[in-house]
Amino acid sequence: MLYPLYERRLIAQLDYSQTPHHVGVILDGNRRWAKANPDEAGDTSTKRGHQAGAKKIVDLLDWCEEAQVAVVTLWLLSNDNLARPANELNPLLEIIGDALEELGEIGRWELRPVGSMELLPNWLQEKLNAVATKSKGIPGVLVNVAIGYGGRQEIADAVKSLIADAVKHGKQVDELAGLISESEISKFLYTAGLPDPDLVIRTSGEQRLGGFLLWQSAKSEFYFCEAYWPDFRKVDFLRALRSYSQRHRRLGL
């Protein structure tokens, strides 16, 4: 009985004029959750943890809609994770693919996969492209889904794309150095054209970015939550929003 009361109290304390426009979320703790919460059969497998984490995504997007968040970036899989053993990686890729298809079938959000797509299996690339095409232009929360994503790789890819674009437009080698600037590199990031995240949330108690949106989060606020991702509740999300609204943002100054 106390939980709904506390939730309503948090909502009453929020100033929705201070809602972050763009929220990045590092969905961390699925494996640890599975080990700490075996089912009746004693299953503590990584696969079960990732399945539980995938089910939580819809809840988060519902909460973001209610709070009038415009853009959400979800980090589902790092490029480092692609080096995991096949018996662990393949089930995870299947879970991610199924989760994205289910989000697409709901039809309430535009879904944009971001990351090193070329590193993913062809079947998953095709599935992600199909979901992105089907959901393109849907009004409401825009959802970036970071899969095979690494912040350093994104910056390297942006610089490569900048150079390739300059060469395509007839620029000479000696002109390239003059083209490289913060504003120009930003045009070639995976999230080009979108606002940088105002707030980055990481679950599971880890207090580090781990390479998430390195360029874009230079002036972001951070909120670290102790709950494992499958246990992340609406009150945890509301606490993050309350913490953000109470801060005096200096924007890097």
Automatic annotation (TrEMBL):
GO terms, biological process? polyprenol biosynthetic process
Keyword annotations for this protein, in alphabetical order, are: Transferase
Reply yes or no: does the keyword Transferase apply: yes
In its UniProt record, a GO molecular function of this protein is: Z-farnesyl diphosphate synthase activity
Q: Name one GO cellular component term.
A: plasma membrane
Keyword Transferase belongs to the record: yes
Which Pfam families does its entry note?
A: Prenyltransf
Instruction: Kindly give the SUPFAM superfamilies that the UniProt entry links to this protein.
Output: Undecaprenyl diphosphate synthase (SSF64005)
Could you tell me which NCBIfam families the record lists for this protein?
A: PRK14828.1, uppS
PANTHER family from the UniProt entry: DEHYDRODOLICHYL DIPHOSPHATE SYNTHASE COMPLEX SUBUNIT DHDDS, DEHYDRODOLICHYL DIPHOSPHATE SYNTHASE FAMILY MEMBER
Protein name (Swiss-Prot/TrEMBL): Unannotated protein
Q: Which organism is it from?
A: freshwater metagenome
